[in-house]
Design brief:
This protein has 24 helices and 13 strands. By secondary structure, the chain is α/β, with parallel strands linked by helices. Strands 4, 5, 6, 8, 9, 10, 11, 12 and 13 form a nine-stranded parallel sheet that branches. Strands 1-2 form a two-stranded antiparallel sheet. 44% of the residues are buried.
């Protein structure tokens, strides 16, 4: 009986298993089979393969079948305009032929047209008949167009800016000036860091030839104007932390949001997919961009670019990413082994920007060797505006329990710098216990807890458990798809992107256990649920660990999937253990 714990009188649960009311529990074997299907397709399983981390072979399976140019209608022709490319255009200009072969519409209302009064995808839209006449011309609601607020999505880089980056025409004078002074100070003073005046002199070294997309259109954000203490913070989350998901979390009341991790080198090389990560929705009132890299000059240039061209409140340095790709290249949590390199990167970022610089880091690299307590006072002395400590080492990744006692020890040496903690918070009791009862931090960053139950931010604010209904959860997903279509589009490719990110999110969402069927509250993030049924069919479907059921949910919101559609989730999710 050592592997069992008493949940309530009359019921026992296995160690690490969530205490669900007996009337909702079904046979355990079904749950094991379902979890296997959801985590990894049967044909890919092998005895020697890890069942944790990421499904790294999933990209080819999830990639939609490419469409031939002849099957795609020219973007200009689709909205009733003349093609500007002319004979060089590789897309079709035959409207009648395109409409004859076009997939059936997914519905009678176009989310983009309903929101903005016009649809920029025209005939390519999968809801085209909502704004198309019998003659295939586009309808425009001029009254709604005039009322729509412009620039709802900020930090969109122009094609010209991307070309300048690719051709290495963009200037980074502040980074280069600081780099020169840093190296000179190292020669003059040996191991001593740059002088106290280095940052000030670098700030004065502006180059009038620097071109920016948006700096002239916005008011620069002054450093030090934000009081971060006591605010809820949605963690930067790769893939699933996209702009539509952040909008959902803003609806539930989160205070601080941050972009997905962007690779500094890719930013200054002008990679379109990386520049897209910088986008900010107008509803994100405190927003930052997270950068990853291991070279001070590269990270500094990326930070300078973001500061000059983006509307951001802070730029965060990633020193917590545990994945092999980042770690083996010396970035992410690998930086924790090189405090001198960290200092140079942070000081370069401070010299090259006007906004706050923040840092996110782990307890250390190895589980039994903590280094964060040595770094925290240095972050404060360098001028970092905020530090966020994940209570696990790189070796632990997302397994085992986060060490909140150690976070509290680090907070005691943080001096004037606010220190946020992170790890395993999934209830308002967890949140306020760390904040008020234990007084272990100045705020909390929430990652997986927000992916599993985004309404956690409302629970924190109201200090109560929300037994959210299945229909309310489906409405939340419907809202995400609407935000997603505004962001990725309503054409075939846009819908495919919305579906993909919805399914990636569902790989976390299904782990929520409805409050009304739990024997003991609150749900703990590392407790595995036994197989159970919900209080109705929809609740059961939303809780299914089967990837095939996640696809059914997507079809309820986005219509049927293509015949050749496949989906393999990114995360195998061993973090229950």
């Amino acid at each position: 009986m050592a592997a069992e714990t008493q949940a309530t009188e009359g019921q026992t649960t296995s160690k690490g298993e969530a205490p669900i009311k007996p009337e909702y529990i079904i046979q355990r074997e079904v749950n094991k089979a379902a979890a296997t299907e959801a985590a990894l397709p049967a044909e890919e399983e092998s005895k020697g393969e890890k069942k944790s981390g990421q499904n790294k072979k999933r990209a080819a399976k999830n990639k939609p079948k490419p469409r031939q140019n002849a099957e795609r209608l020219c973007r200009s022709v689709a909205i009733g305009e003349e093609c500007t490319i002319g004979a060089a255009c590789k897309s079709s200009h035959d409207v009648a032929a395109f409409m004859e072969k076009k997939e059936p519409d997914l519905g009678s209302q176009c989310p983009i047209f309903d929101e903005f009064g016009k649809c920029v995808f025209g005939l390519r839209c999968r809801y085209a008949m909502a704004h198309t006449t019998a003659e295939f011309t586009q309808v425009v609601d001029n009254e709604k167009v005039q009322k729509t607020q412009p620039n709802q999505v900020l930090n969109q880089m122009s094609r010209d800016m991307q070309i300048r980056l690719r051709k290495h025409q963009e200037k980074f004078p502040r980074t280069q000036e600081f780099d020169v002074q840093w190296q000179a100070s190292m020669k003059d003073n040996g191991a001593q860091a740059g002088s106290a005046n280095t940052e000030e002199s670098a700030r004065d070294a502006q180059d009038d030839t620097v071109k920016t997309d948006q700096a002239s259109k916005r008011q620069r954000k002054a450093r030090g104007r934000i009081d971060y203490r006591g605010k809820t913070y949605l963690a930067p989350l790769t893939t699933v932390g996209n702009l539509p998901f952040r909008r959902v979390c803003k609806e539930f009341g989160v205070n601080i949001t941050c972009s997905e991790m962007a690779i500094a080198g890719n930013i200054i090389q002008g990679q379109g997919s990386e520049l897209a990560l910088l986008k900010r929705h107008a509803s994100e009132d405190i927003f930052g961009v997270q950068l990853a890299g291991n070279r001070a000059d590269i990270v500094g240039k990326a930070a300078e670019f973001v500061s000059n061209n983006c509307d951001v409140d802070f730029i965060d340095l990633n020193m917590g990413c545990p994945i092999d790709m980042a770690f083996n290249n010396g970035g992410g949590s690998a930086l924790l082994a090189h405090p001198r390199k960290i200092e140079r990167i942070v000081r370069t970022m401070l010299a090259a920007t006007d906004c706050d610089i923040t840092v996110k880091f782990r307890t250390g690299i190895s589980r039994d060797v903590n280094v964060a307590h040595k770094l925290v006072p240095q972050f404060a002395s360098w001028g970092t505006a905020l530090g966020t400590l994940h209570g696990r080492s790189r070796q632990q990744r997302y397994t085992k329990v986060a060490d909140w006692d150690y976070i509290g020890e680090c907070q005691n040496v943080a001096e004037t710098m606010p220190l946020f903690g992170g790890g395993d918070v999934m209830s308002w009791e967890d949140y306020w216990g760390h904040m008020e009862t234990q007084k272990q931090c100045d705020g909390i960053m929430i990652g997986r807890g927000a992916l599993i139950k985004p309404w956690l931010f409302r629970e924190i604010e109201e200090r109560r458990v929300w037994d959210i209904s299945a229909s309310e959860r489906l409405d939340m997903l419907r809202q995400f798809t609407r935000f997603g279509m505004e962001h990725w589009g309503t054409d075939t490719q846009g819908i495919a992107n919305v579906r993909r990110y919805l399914l990636e999110w569902q790989s976390f969402l299904h782990r929520y256990i409805p409050a009304g069927i739990l024997e003991v509250l609150p749900q703990k993030i590392n407790e595995r649920p036994p197989a159970f049924v919900g209080r109705n069919d929809l609740e059961t479907l939303l809780s299914s660990p089967l990837a095939s059921d996640w696809v059914k949910i997507s079809e309820m919101l986005l219509g049927p999937v293509p015949d050749d559609f496949t989906f393999v989730p990114k995360h195998k999710s061993n973090s229950y253990e």
